[in-house]
Amino acid sequence: MWPLVLTLVVATTGAYGAEVCPGLKTMYLPPQCINDRDKCPQNSTLEPASKVCNMCDGCTAYIQKDGECEPTSGISCKPGYECDEQELKCVAKSCSCQYKADNSYYKSWTPRCDGFDYAPVQCKGEKPTGRCFCFDKKGNRIFGEQLWANAENMTCACSRQVQELQDQGRKDVTLHCNEQGNYEELQCDDGLCWCAEEKTGKPISQILPENMMIMLPCYDKLNVGSAYLRQCESLLIAQKKIEIEMAAHNSRNPNFPYVNCELDGSYGAVQQDGNQYVN
Asked: Looking at the keywords, is Repeat present (predicted)?
């Protein structure tokens, strides 16, 4: 089975060739320093250096959809697929993003997948008039959207991080995401502030206590003012801190009114007015 798979990969990747990484049971295409998966040759996908024989980021060849496989061969199916032990071919995992993409689960659009999960950015309609939205790994819409024509730098990384932190139990996350789910330049969280790279959120300045944020080069008094938190999230975070403190003392949570804030700190479209929800 091994020689057959290797021959198939070489045939589909042409002059790139294929090798087996020592200690890594998959094949890679050596050595291409590529940071855009759309530039990978057919029948390969982008992997970080740690998975490509500790070289630079490069394109890794896998057994493709419906390709012959053996569960014990150690050669992987394409991300989003698994080796069916009965049919001995690579198939999409049931209910995964890839399964829904392959089977036209959504009539109006085909999701983009990262392995079994949904990719952060999903675009619907026709380019350039369509729109792109931020999604979590399970396929749920989260904060962030943009016209497809203007979504070249859209990563949704900020929206994804906030949601993941909240899913882990954090109730006081104060990261600010812009309209397309990327990071705003000035970020503060857990009492610390820094200037962030928009697409990744990586600090591009020193990290200072929040009461010293005015010393950061990305601080803009006109747009930020004297306080980092915006009106809606200031109220929401205060409520969450009271809830955390009361829970620590085994006290019953207070009956706060529902406050809905977007990830840029503004008020959400739906708010509570007494016992009713209003737009």
From this structure: yes
User: How wide is the angle at C-alpha 121 spanned by C-alphas 116 and 124, nearest 5°?
Assistant: 105
* CA–CA dist 258, 247 (Å, integer): 18
- Confidence check: pLDDT of 104 > 70: yes
Name the amino acid, one letter, at 105: Y
Fold entry, domain 170-224: Invariant Chain; Chain I (4.10.800)
DSSP string, 73-134: S-PPBPTTEEE-TTT-BEEEPTTSHHHHHHTT-SSS----EETTEEPSEEEESSTTTSEEEE
Q: Where in the chain is the domain with CATH 4.10.800?
A: 170-224
> Which tokens in the block code for residue 31?
């050595």
Outline where the chain has alpha helix (H).
2-13, 97-102, 157-167, 221-224, 231-248
- For residue range 59-79, list pLDDT tens digits in order: 666 787 888 888 766 567 877
Closest CA to 145 of 161, 124, 127, 167: 124
